[in-house]
Write a structure and sequence with these properties.
Layout (H helix, E strand, L loop, with lengths): L20 E3 L21 E8 L2 H12 L11 E7 L2 E7 L10 H14 L6 E6 L6 H11 L9 E6 L8 H6 L5 H6 L2 E5 L5 H14 L24 H25 L22 E6 L3 H12 L14 E7 L2 E7 L8 H14 L6 E6 L6 H12 L9 E5 L7 H9 L4 E3 L5 H14 L14 H4 L5 E6 L6 H9 L10 E6 L2 E7 L8 H14 L7 E7 L5 H14 L7 E7 L6 H9 L1 H8 L5 E5 L3 H10 L8 H23 L3 H6 L19
Parallel strand pairs: 2-4, 2-5, 5-6, 6-7, 8-10, 8-11, 11-12, 12-13, 14-16, 14-17, 17-18, 18-19
Antiparallel strand pairs: 1-3, 3-4, 9-10, 15-16
Helix pairs in contact: 2-20, 7-15, 7-20
């Protein structure tokens, strides 16, 4: 029976034969002839994770979802899929929680495989449990897996196997169960299953969950509510305390920041998929074009219904924010002032806009101040819209920022846009969104693709953007290096991004404050801020700035802090910059760097990449920039993956501490405590 008022379910006979292919890393979907799921119309794909401690029931549920006998007991995470009425159904089947080998490194691998196969995140967790056999160890394993996701309880359907002799009080019985009670009370959707399950009603319940979550998937993020509470380890208390402190910092500062920022996260397409195969993340994709940064920010906030952008915030690149309206996911791309850019820079921004609004925008909002719109502006706007294709005006609506008399040139633009218009002063959100929805309906759900002109031969000649993060101790010369690279004079107590066109390319520099003197939480915040400022391209080089002097503990500490915060992946993107204000080829300088053992050891920890240059010499700066590879980068997604891996590792370390033999812990040197007693001056301190 269902918990509450939901009816009991049973498995119907006579299902049509269905083929589906299972594999550990990939799936080969096969089209079905008969549909049953009826997914919400805005969903083209459903990803389900199947977890449980009863193999036979778990496999039955999986086969019922896919509509065939294709699920077997796996020894590792297994991905199976089918296509029903052009809707792709993906099921990630997992080993039983009671599997004897599911511990230690294998449990860690289980978690990594689960994240990889469900990327960019599952829409639903199906949890199939048999209470009589559910142990504390299985409960810990389940918690360990679920805590890697952001608020999984809202996306979890719990099925509990009971015997037919169970009474109607079974709901209260299991809610009071010390192991499964928490799952039942936390999960928004759960029901008791009485050995028989009806497929149509299972799908009805699944669709109810999908509708309530507006088709959104669970992200690979962590918040404090999902913190895994492990039993205390009474031996080796200092080590456990350090592990817990580090784990809390990773979760709260690292994953919490990512979770807070996910609304505006500028991923290009869907993580882990090529643009040719990825599905759109957003139903409504709006691009804002205009000259006033204040009005662009206000309109972005107005559409989303949240104060994401400050009214005076200035962006030199396209930035995004997202939200929901009427059950639909909405993306807003706020462009910089394209009207003051040259043709090459406009093409570059349109290429970036294409990535951010993948597979292409379906709405263009043209922000116009009537008294300020000239014939020259109209010509520039025509050029910009031409990069969206020949149908760009069919997807365009004018948004007037002021109630002023319209000039002839503006009337012509309004006519090209089919008379579609809205005035910001009306402040009628419903009217604006209805106009947008009507325009999308008239265009039959089509979207704009960018013409080859956007990324044609002229665009290919443009050097790709370069993003640098400078770090080092106080007084090492970071600000001077940043100033001379960009030709700007800016300093800040926190990570900020400064941009300039250098050597015919757009170069961005983020200067990190000294990190070794900050708390772990502050380090994580600054680290995340630095990479997020460089997205979507990512950081192409982390540069440790050093003077040509003997290394200090602070110098070493800065590099160690960066490597610890960003994970082992950062080594491939780290290089050292020794700055001088004279000839860098001076023998004294070269010999000092090459023969100093501490410096060489530090350089080797950065893959041997280092440069000595006169930072005031523009030619040498140009040579430095040419050395930095832009094919690969360290992105905010890389940072998040590093934190999740660190999270998994720390969880496992804590588990190992908790499983230590009490006798061994008492004999451990870390557990020995000595008290020295004596009078003052007797030598206790010595």
């Amino acid at each position: 029976m269902f918990l509450g008022d939901r009816p009991s379910l049973h498995l119907p006979a006579g299902e049509e034969d269905v083929m589906a292919t299972a594999a550990a890393d990939s799936e080969a979907p096969v089209r079905r002839r008969r549909s049953n799921p009826h997914l919400p119309p805005y969903m083209s794909e459903l990803r389900v994770v199947l977890l449980g401690n009863r193999c036979s029931l778990k496999n039955s549920v999986g086969n019922m979802i896919l509509g065939g006998n294709c699920i077997r007991e796996p020894d590792c995470c297994q991905k199976v899929s089918t296509i029903i009425d052009d809707k792709k159904i993906i099921l990630i089947n997992t080993p039983d929680l009671q599997h004897p080998n599911l511990c230690g490194e294998k449990l860690t691998k289980f978690g990594k495989d689960l994240m990889r196969l469900s990327d960019p995140g599952p829409h639903l967790f199906l949890l199939v449990l048999q209470p009589e056999n559910f142990t504390e160890e299985e409960e810990e394993r389940l918690q360990f897996l679920l805590q890697m996701f952001d608020s999984p309880s809202n996306h979890t359907l719990t099925l509990i196997s009971t015997s037919k002799q169970e009474t109607s009080d079974v709901r209260e019985k299991y809610l009071q169960d010390p192991l499964i009670g928490d799952f039942l009370s936390e999960c928004k959707h759960e029901f008791i299953q009485n050995d028989e399950l009806q497929r149509s009603k299972l799908w009805k319940t699944i669709n109810q969950i999908l509708e309530e979550n507006h088709g959104k998937n669970v992200g690979f993020h962590q918040n404090t509510s999902a913190h895994l509470e492990l039993p205390s380890c009474h031996g080796n208390e200092e080590q456990e305390k350090e592990e817990r402190n580090t784990l809390d910092v990773v979760k709260q500062a690292g994953m919490g920041i990512y979770n807070a920022a996910k609304g505006w996260w500028p991923f290009s397409g869907i993580v882990g998929q090529s643009e040719e195969t990825a599905e759109p993340q957003f139903s409504v994709r709006i691009v804002l074009l205009g000259k006033s940064k204040d009005k662009l920010s206000k309109m972005s906030n107005f559409i989303i219904g949240d104060e994401v952008f400050h009214s005076q915030s200035s962006n030199k690149q396209c930035v995004t924010t997202s939200g929901e309206w009427n059950g639909k996911s909405v993306l807003v791309v706020k462009t910089p002032d394209l009207f003051v850019m040259n043709e090459q820079m406009v093409r570059r921004e349109m290429s970036r806009c294409r990535s951010l609004s993948f597979p292409g925008p379906n709405v263009l909002l043209l922000m116009v101040k009537p008294s300020d719109f000239t014939q020259e502006d109209a010509e520039k706007l025509n050029f910009i819209l031409s990069l969206f294709g020949q149908n760009s005006f069919q997807h365009s609506m004018i948004v007037f920022t002021h109630k002023e008399k319209q000039a002839k040139v503006l009337n012509e633009l309004l006519q090209k846009c089919g008379g579609r218009m809205y005035n910001m002063l009306d402040k009628n959100h419903g009217l604006l969104m209805e106009n947008i929805e009507r325009m999308m309906s008239e265009n039959r759900g089509s979207f704009l693709t960018f013409t080859e002109e956007t990324r044609g031969p002229q665009c290919e000649q443009i050097k790709p953007d370069l993003n640098l993060v400078l770090f080092g101790r106080r007084g090492a010369g970071k600000t001077s290096a940043s100033k001379n690279i960009l030709g700007l004079s800016v300093s800040s107590q926190q990570s900020v991004r400064n941009q300039a066109e250098v050597c015919e390319r757009l170069v961005s520099v983020v200067e990190l404050p000294p990190l070794s003197e900050r708390t772990q939480k502050e380090v994580m915040q600054e680290s995340f801020r630095s990479v997020s400022l460089c997205d979507p391209e990512g950081v192409h080089a982390f540069i440790l700035v050093l003077p040509v002097d003997p290394l200090t503990d602070e110098d070493k500490g800065e590099l160690q802090t960066i490597q610890k915060a960003f994970g082992p992946q950062v080594k491939d993107f780290t290089r050292i910059l020794f700055t001088v204000d004279f000839d860098p080829k001076d023998p004294n300088v070269v010999n000092f760097v090459e023969k100093n053992e501490d410096i060489q050891e530090l350089c080797q920890s950065c893959g041997g990449r280092y440069d000595i240059l006169n930072i005031r010499n523009k030619q040498q700066i140009s040579e430095l920039l040419e050395k930095i590879q832009v094919e690969n980068s360290y992105s905010a997604h890389t940072f998040t993956q590093a934190q999740m891996e660190k999270n998994i590792e720390l969880e496992e370390n804590m588990r190992q501490l908790n499983r230590q033999d009490p006798c061994k812990k008492q004999q451990s040197p870390e557990s020995v405590r000595i008290v020295l007693i004596g009078k003052t001056g007797s030598g206790k301190s010595s």
